[in-house]
What we know:
Elements: E1 2-4, E2 7-9, E3 12-14, E4 20-24, E5 31-36, H1 40-56, H2 64-80, H3 82-93, H4 104-114, E6 121-126, E7 129-137, E8 140-144, H5 152-163, E9 167-171, H6 179-189, E10 197-200, H7 204-212, E11 216-222, H8 225-235, E12 241-245, E13 251-254, H9 260-272, E14 284-288, H10 292-305, H11 324-339, E15 343-346, E16 363-366, H12 373-376, E17 383-389, H13 392-400, E18 404-405, E19 408-411, H14 415-423, E20 431-432, E21 446-447, E22 450-451, E23 464-471, H15 473-481
Parallel strand pairs: 1-5, 8-9, 8-11, 9-10, 11-12, 13-14, 13-19, 14-17, 16-17, 19-20
Antiparallel strand pairs: 2-3, 2-10, 4-5, 6-7, 7-23, 12-22, 15-16, 18-21
Helix pairs in contact: 1-7, 2-4, 2-6, 4-5, 9-10
Bound molecules: nicotinamide-adenine-dinucleotide.
Amino acid sequence: xxxxxxxxxxxxxxxxxxxxxxxxxxxxxxxxxxxxxxxxxxxxxxxxxxxxxxxxxxxxxxxxxxxxxxxxxxxxxxxxxxxxxxxxxxxxxxxxxxxxxxxxxxxxxxxxxxxxxxxxxxxxxxxxxxxxxxxxxxxxxxxxxxxxxxxxxxxxxxxxxxxxxxxxxxxxxxxxxxxxxxxxxxxxxxxxxxxxxxxxxxxxxxxxxxxxxxxxxxxxxxxxxxxxxxxxxxxxxxxxxxxxxxxxxxxxxxxxxxxxxxxxxxxxxxxxxxxxxxxxxxxxxxxxxxxxxxxxxxxxxxxxxxxxxxxxxxxxxxxxxxxxxxxxxxxxxxxxxxxxxxxxxxxxxxxxxxxxxxxxxxxxxxxxxxxxxxxxxxxxxxxxxxxxxxxxxxxxxxxxxxxxxxxxxxxxxxxxxxxxxxxxxxxxxxxxxxxxxxxxxxxxxxxxxxxxxxxxxxxxxxxxxxxxxxxxxxxxxxxxxxxx
Length: 484
Ligand code: NAD
C-alpha cells in the first residue's frame, strides 16, 4: 500500500506524530494508501516554521515580480504532474478522472495576472497632511479546506496567500489527504523557500489546533457552515482575520420564455457535476408551473443517461459520493423528500449492480416546496429539486427562501431581464443563461454562505493589511516623483 507522509515543514516531508490513517477508495471501498496524521506538536512545528520564514523576510521581501515567477512555475508543474494529481484525487474522492483538474493551472495564472492590479503603495495628500499608505502581508495564514475539489481547494488558499508575501500552513480534509503533499513537492521544486508553505494532514482536531494557534494571523477556511461558525467562535476573541467560504443551496430560475434545448444541458451538467458535491451547485431548479412537467421529464431523462461506475474508466460520467457517511446522509435526505410529498421523477436509491462503493443514482424530485428539507438543506449529492412558481416575484422569493446565499442562475431569452432578476437574488454570485462566473470575478457568499471573497483582484483583500505613515511634504513630493 502506498504511504504518504502527512506533514511537510521547512521544505521536508515527514511523518505526523498522530499515527496512521487508511485512505479508502469510495468507488471500491478498498483501502489503497496510508497517511500519517499531524498532532498538536506537528501543528506547533508547522506554525513556527511559517512564522520564522515570515520574520526572516525570505519571501515577504522578495519582489512581487519574482514571487509571480515562482507561482508561474508552480502552474507549469501542476500541468506537468496533472495525471498524478488527478489519479490521487480520483482514488480519494471518486470524481471521474477526466473532470475538473483542468481549472487548477488557469486559476493559478489568473491570480498571477490579477495581483498586478493590487495597489500596494500610494501617497495620499489632503488638507491635513501627507501620508504613505501601504498594504503589507499579514504573516502566518491557516488554510483549512474540504475534500470536494482536491487541488483546486488547496490552491485557492495557497496561491493568493503566497502572491501577497504571506507564509501558510495548509490543512486538507481527511477524505482527500494525498494531493496536499504532492502540491508541497511542486512548490519546493518551483523554488519556494523552505518554511513558506507547510502542510499538516488531519481531521477536525488538527484543524482546530491550527486555527486556534496564537501565531496564526489569518484564517482562510472553506467548508460547512457549522464548522465555519465554530472557527469564527475560536478566532473571534483573538481578532484573527477571517475568510469563510461555506455551504450553499443555490437556485436556478427558469423564465417562461426559454427553449428547453438551451436550459436543460447547463442545468444537468452543473447539477450533477462531481456527484453534486459542489458548494455552488444549482440544486434547486425554480420553474414556471406550466413548464414543470416538460422540464422534469428532460432532467429525469438526463439523469438516467449518466453512466455510473469506475471513475478511472473514461466511459464513466458519474462516480460515487465521497464516503459511506455522505452516502447515508444523501439517502436520508432523499427519503425525507419522499415522505414530505415530493414527486420522485428519477433515481432515488443505490444503482443496481453498484452496491459496493458509495454510489447513488442521479435523482430528480418534482413538486418540491420550500418547506421541505430537500429545498432547505445542503444535500451535497446528486439530487435536483424542482420547485414550480406562478409569478416571477414568487420565483425570486423561492430563490431567497434559504439560510444560504452563495450562488444562483437565471435563464431567459431576454438576458437583460435575466440580469435584473439575478440582481434580486440575495447571493454573492449569479449566472445569466449559464451556471458559473469567470475566475476573475470575486466569488463568495452572503448569509450562511460565509464572509469574504476569493478569485479576482478582490481575492487578495483578506491577505493584506493596510498601514499608514505620516510624511513630510518634501518626502511626499519625492515619493510621488518616484511614481507613488
Ligand atoms: P467540513 O466543514 O466538515 O470540513 C472542512 C474542513 O474543516 C476539513 O479540513 C475539516 O477537517 C476541518 N474542520 C472540521 N472541524 C474543524 C474545526 N473545529 N476547526 C478547524 N477545522 C475544522 O466540510 P466538508 O464536509 O469537508 O466539506 C463540505 C462543505 O464545504 C459543504 O458545506 C460545501 O458547501 C462547503 N464548500 C464551500 C465552498 C465555497 O467556496 N463556499 C467550496 C467547497 C466546499
